[in-house]
Write a sequence for this structure.
């Protein structure tokens, strides 16, 4: 399969905008994902986008929920491990967003009074860390075989000083950007019942926003523009996730898949 | 006759309370159908909001913000520091959000609340990325001395929309901030001088005579929402936040820029139309909060004169 180039065809106006690594504005870095790497864990996955790599492991469902959690539902616990150093505010925030995102995609009523732990280990961070971790965690949940409503697909959209949207920025680019948003969308479902896309309030279900975190101030229109671009790009990522699942069902061993294949 | 009637009412009340505790979501949905909320608010109405400036006399700037029962106390303490070599003209702001056990039944002594560091981070992001404070204004002597502003926000009562109240208190504390007079002593160190002393001793030159107040531009104001099915509930209280888990926080500054759109997961997916509605509601709320803040500032000036 060819590289993800030119997610949008009418980008002539921004073609002259150079990125450090020679990508076009809407081009993602090469993705790769491998599953079932850890033997003790019930499910695990490594997800990389360029030089950002995250390893996620799933343990559970284990018996009992923690204090203050509703025992009628399954409880989700996220442990975020940074590459080096202590867990700071940033890690706590990312951990909470990841937890709430996973809570929204898991079918919590199927295993009541259980806890599922998701451990996220950052291996290397070169920008777009949160979306990368969400993709890794999702792949790990699929690997563990937990019942999910749909998948969550994360994407980072940046807004340059001149107002252009770039996708999947690196760490260096993030520092130069006017603002950037980490967005999470559900993947596009394939339904046997209806031929067309599932519509909610006139919009396909995959256009609904699961999570959003922004850094830096931007005009509202530019944010909506970011949403639009992000949605287009998540289609590709959700396709990778789906192919990974398919491959896993076929041979059941450690599988690796990447966008460059 | 009267007693039996009263008993009947009591039974009815008990049943409603039981229903509310057993089936909280269904209880809420019955209200939402009528476009109302159990605390008698319509869906898009915020709770009563008030700001009081200067409740803490020992701080350089302080404010108490209340949104309904949610109460936040913000205080700013200024200290002199040496600026870092890369930005010799910039001061610094350190923001911390505290949730002591008195604020809610969920927070236990000895164990810090989970949300406190997250709100702390959100506050820092909103205040710094809105560019409300020009860090250059906190400079005293180029490369030698600048102000370090420690902003601490304490949650005294946690009843939902914590971030909205915390940001309002933080912004109000900065607008109340009175920068103390400082001068250089013989050893070349920066010392504070009290107002009366500063005028008397002309030998010591006051470094910052004209810069006593910070100029705040692009003040950010935020509004939280809870999404449930097709309903948007503005300014949720703690009960609503716990029953319906899809929280969205929109932060806009006064020039209309989006400072933050924060949605940490949740069952309900936010579509573009919903987000546009949220932004429009947040814009109106920003104007309201600006007026509340301006009124509080005006009151304070009248009191002092």
């Amino acid at each position: 399969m060819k590289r993800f180039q030119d997610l949008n065809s009418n980008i002539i106006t921004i073609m002259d905008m150079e990125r450090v690594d020679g990508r076009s504005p809407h081009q993602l870095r090469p993705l790769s994902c491998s599953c079932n790497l850890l033997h003790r864990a019930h499910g695990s996955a490594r997800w990389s986008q360029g030089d950002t790599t995250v390893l996620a492991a799933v343990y559970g469902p284990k018996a009992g929920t923690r204090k203050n959690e509703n025992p009628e539902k399954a409880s989700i616990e996220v442990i975020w491990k940074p590459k080096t150093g202590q867990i700071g505010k940033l890690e706590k925030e990312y951990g909470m967003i990841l937890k709430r995102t996973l809570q929204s995609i898991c079918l919590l009523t199927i295993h009541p009074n259980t806890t599922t732990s998701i451990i996220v280990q950052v291996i290397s961070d070169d920008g777009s860390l949160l979306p990368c971790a969400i993709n890794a965690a999702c792949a790990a949940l699929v690997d563990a075989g937990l019942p999910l409503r749909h998948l969550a697909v994360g994407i980072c959209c940046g807004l340059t000083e001149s107002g252009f949207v770039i996708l999947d920025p690196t760490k260096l680019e993030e520092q130069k950007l006017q603002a950037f948003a980490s967005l999470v969308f559900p993947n596009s479902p394939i339904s046997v019942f209806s031929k067309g896309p599932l519509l909610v309030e006139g919009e396909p279900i995959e256009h609904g926003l699961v999570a959003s975190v922004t850094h830096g101030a931007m005009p509202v229109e530019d944010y909506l523009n970011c949403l639009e671009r992000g949605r287009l790009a998540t289609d590709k990522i959700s396709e990778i996730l789906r192919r990974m699942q398919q491959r896993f069902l076929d041979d059941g061993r450690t599988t690796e898949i990447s966008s460059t294949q | 006759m009267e007693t039996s009637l009263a008993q009947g009412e009591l039974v009815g009340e008990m049943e409603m309370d039981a229903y509310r505790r057993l089936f909280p979501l269904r209880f809420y949905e019955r209200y939402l159908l009528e476009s109302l909320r159990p605390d008698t608010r319509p869906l898009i109405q915020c709770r009563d909001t008030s700001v009081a400036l200067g409740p803490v006399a020992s701080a350089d700037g302080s404010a108490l913000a209340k949104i309904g029962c949610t109460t936040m106390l913000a205080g700013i303490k200024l200290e002199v520091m040496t600026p870092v070599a890369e930005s010799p003209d910039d001061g610094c702001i350190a923001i911390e959000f505290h949730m002591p056990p008195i604020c809610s039944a969920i927070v236990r002594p000895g164990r810090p609340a989970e949300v406190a560091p997250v709100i702390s981070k959100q506050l820092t992001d909103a205040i710094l990325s809105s560019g409300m404070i020009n860090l250059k204004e906190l400079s005293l002597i180029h490369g030698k001395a600048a102000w370090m502003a420690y902003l601490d926000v304490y949650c005294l009562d946690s009843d939902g929309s914590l971030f909205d109240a915390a940001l309002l208190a933080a912004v109000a504390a900065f607008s109340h901030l009175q920068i103390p007079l400082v001068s250089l002593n013989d050893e070349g160190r920066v010392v504070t001088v009290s107002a009366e002393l500063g005028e008397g001793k002309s030998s010591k030159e006051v470094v910052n005579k004209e810069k006593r107040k910070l100029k705040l531009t692009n003040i950010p104001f935020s509004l939280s929402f809870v999404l449930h099915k097709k309903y948007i509930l503005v300014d949720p209280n703690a009960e609503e936040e716990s029953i319906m888990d899809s929280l969205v926080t929109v932060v806009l500054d006064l020039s209309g820029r989006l400072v933050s759109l924060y949605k940490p997961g949740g069952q309900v997916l936010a579509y573009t139309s919903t987000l546009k509605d949220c932004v429009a509601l947040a814009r109106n709320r920003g104007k309201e909060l600006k007026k509340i803040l301006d009124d509080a500032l005006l009151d304070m000036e009248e009191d002092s004169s």
Helices of chain B lie at 2-22, 24-33, 115-130, 162-176, 195-200, 238-243, 272-304. Residues 1-5 of chain B have pLDDT under 50 and may be disordered. Chain B is about 35% helix and 25% strand.
